[in-house]
Amino acid sequence: MVWCPIDSDRGRAMTDLPSDISGTQSLLANQSYICDRALATVVFLSLKLGRPLFLEGEAGTGKTEIAKTIAAALGRRLIRLQCYEGLDASGAVYEWNFAEQMIAIRTAEATGGADRTALKTELFSDDYLIARPLLEAMQDQPGGPPVLLIDEIDRTDEPFEAFLLEALSDFQVTIPELGTIRAPEPPIVILTSNRTREVHDALKRRCLYHWVGYPAFDREIEILQARAPEAAETLSRQVVAFVQKLRTEDLFKKPGVAETIDWAKCLLALDVMTLSPEVIADTLGAILKYQDDIQKIQGSEARRILDDVRAELAPAE
Fold this sequence. Notes:
There is one protein chain. 47% of the residues lie in helices and 13% in strands. It is α/β, with parallel strands linked by helices. It folds into 3 domains: 21-85 and 139-212, Rossmann fold, CATH 3.40.50.300; 94-128, no CATH class; 217-304. Helix 10 packs across helix 11 and helix 10 (217-227) packs across helix 12 (257-269). It is elongated and about 85 Å long.
């Protein structure tokens, strides 16, 4: 699980889909996304079968980044629909440019020769249509079908889920003024959920499913080495061990892999070579995002966890 920037170069050559699971792991690893075989398998099947992929798990475990990585690895455009409470079809599909439509109406009135039927046809044409993520994903894109990321679907409500179910079943959307628009080729669809609420079974049934959990110690070391290769092995092992200990504590928000990477980068910026109680106290805000959690861990608790980490790592170091 690892982070890479969204690729904005829409004109580059498209990479062929991987032919097997090992090829999928290699494809992702080339973009510094380290994953286990189980995740590589479901990604491969999603690409091979053209099925949407539903990724669920704790925040910060790399769900969103898999979509970014696939887009970068395959040379496809990434189209992201960030979900939120109250999102509806118009916000996800399209809207009309009312300001430009009003200007066109006023201009036609000023000239005095406006034909109502012709004006109406012109106002509700592609020239005044603002495409939102779902509509964009259904249109031709340079480089081939895009990667459509529907991020944090659990933040929306059931009516939007029902609409999305219909849109993803046939990969088409309907605009009353223009008709039905069907994707010439289905996009690669990835949905993510932090499980703040349960997503309806009907939507999940349309997808391949995978739970993205926190990685094991050795896997998280690999991830950190891929993302922050300048970190010394001793520091990397201490950072990962400390974060994994934190995940066993009763915290409001447990740190994810993203926080592990952020913390390591902060420590590198401070020229830290090894963890100490003082360094941890100064940088807790890089891994814990709630004051109650920081107050609970700082001081004697942080020292205790660090002592446990040192004791566990002592034979290896």
